[in-house]
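Readers outside the structure-tokenisation community will struggle with the description of the input data as it stands. Showing the layout once, in full, would remove most of the difficulty. For illustration, here is how one protein appears when written out as sequence plus structure tokens:
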Amino acid sequence: MRRITFHIMMAMIIVTIIILHVAGAIIDSKRAPSAENGILDLRNWNFEKDGIVPLNGMWKMKWGSLLPTEKITDSSSMMADVKVPSSWNQLTNPGFSKKGTGVATYYLTIKKNAKDNLLGVWLPSIYSSYRMWVNGKPIIHEGQVSEFEDYAVPSMKQRMVMVSTPGNTADIVIEVTNFSHHRGGIWQSLYLGSSEKIISKGRLELVRDSMLFGCLLMVGLYHIGLFIERRKDWYTFLFAILCIAMAIRILTSGDAILLTWFPGLSWYFVIRLEYVLMIVATMAGCGYVRYLFYEDACYRTYTIMNVAGALLIGSIVFLPVRTFTSYLLLYQLYVIAAACYVIIMNMKAVYNHRMGAHIALFGFTVFNILVLNDILYYHSLAPIRDLAPSGLVFCVFMQSLMISMRYSKAMYDVESVTIELRELNANLEARIQERTAALTQMNANLEMKNYELERMETSRRHLFTNISHDLRTPMTLIRGYLEALQDEVIQDREQQKKYIRLMLNKINGLNHLIDDLFELSKLEARRVPVSIESVLLEHFISHLEEHYELELRSRGLMFACYNLTYRNAPPVSLMLEVDIDRMMQVFDNIIYNAVKFTPIGGSITIEVDYLKQEQAVHIQITDTGIGVGEEDLPYLFDRFYKNDKSRNSMTGGSGIGLAIAKEIVELHLGRIGVESVQGHGTTFYIILPAQVK
């Protein structure tokens, strides 16, 4: 927004300068008196109030000779009246050359007030060399004036001089020589005024040209920088060439600042440079529009314009100055054709709604109108001069505004894309995290599945091993009994029935063993159905008391349950997540095992406490039985482990009850252990997760 405001302000300033320039020229042309018959009457002109006056009108001129100052007055009646400003090519007087080359002497008498003693004269570039006298005194010269071509030296500078003009009249004599340019004579206005006004005019023109040069050069260098940063945008480079070419051309025309900076430069070089820059700027302008509105530009026309421009530059470089300057109309037609091409391409772009096309069209239209004005002025068809540089600066700022809009749009798009990319990256990171979490979960699931498969495979191997191990002895006994019956070794009927009952008992034991093995295998493989429910710990303890108290007391054992959780948790606040039936199976295995090895009169107690740090319930089942030897403790939860000290064959145990209990507790995410000293009883402990409601 700031860039747009700045460009609009600069455009308004330039338009204001152009309007003031035009208005001033029109006012001056209306108010200033004109010379008639070689005499300019300024007696009613106030230089302080009315300002400077152009010395326009009908001057006296002697064609073909350089008259000494003392002969001017005598020959004035024989001199022809010619219009100033006008070039020799436009003169229609008989005997005058229309080729623009030759020599001539201009004469003008100025009637003025005697008080206007010190006056200033502003002289434009007079092609191609001149010498001026005022009241018979030599005042200034530019180049070398001579009637002979070999001795004439061209030069081009705008000059201002201060002259003393006592009395009521001032005679101005200007000798002009031109053998180098196709156009000769005084074809721009001279100005007369007070010394302060003339100095001010010279300074203003110098400041104007310097400001225009600086503005165009800075804009050109700026766009070269843009092109270096983004070489894809060729229109920025061509726009830079247009600006720089026009900036340097300002130095070669008008006040010829280039010759002031570099006095050693040749007049011929400066003229060639001025024309070359005009063509280069035109070609750059066409290329700028062509690449700016690439979709709308005509490539064939652009190619033709480039070829024609290259041919014109070649003619400027290789032909003599007087020759190629005589083709000025051709160069001007080329500029007009380029202007038409630019305008048409711009109008197409506006029609197709290209970004900034209306701004570019407005700028180029103003510039082309002012260029046309200068072309007409060059042919003495327009009263106002040197508007093209100001028009170019206006056009440059309009193009800069349009390019700034494009770059602002590009930056906005980049920022939008950046924001979208950031959001995409953020979402991508979130997605990656989600996918990673999902993959981690999948890996965990796969590991769990693999673990379960390993457990199932291990359980299967153990099942077959255990079946092979624990079935061999009873099957051998049954076989022996059957062989004895078959061989009629046992004849007694009662003995036969006894052996049959023994075989039936073995078969029932085998059935129980097979059931336990399958139960253990399913528990190890985590394939048993589990019905988890929330149970209040108080209710669970009450259930244990009801289930075991009467039976144990009937066997002559003391039984008690102690709830110690009140020490670490509020009463009636602990919840267990358990399968009641499966958990009762654990307690059956532990308590009935304790019953087998606890003598009558002994005791079995259950103590329940709450481990606050672990958020778990600690359950201890303690008996006063014969205990377990230290060497047997590590193997109590192994399947089929039997020892005469703890679990012998006399008790009828299968040796897998505690292994089943261990699997059920681990299925509830708990753990089970045992502590015992032989002869002093055994303590089993179970730790289960609990929640405080």
Summary: Residues 1-10, 23-30, 644-652 have pLDDT under 50 and may be disordered. The first strand starts at residue 39 and ends at 41. The CA atoms of residues 220 and 243 lie 5 Å apart. Residues 388-486 form the longest helix (99 residues).
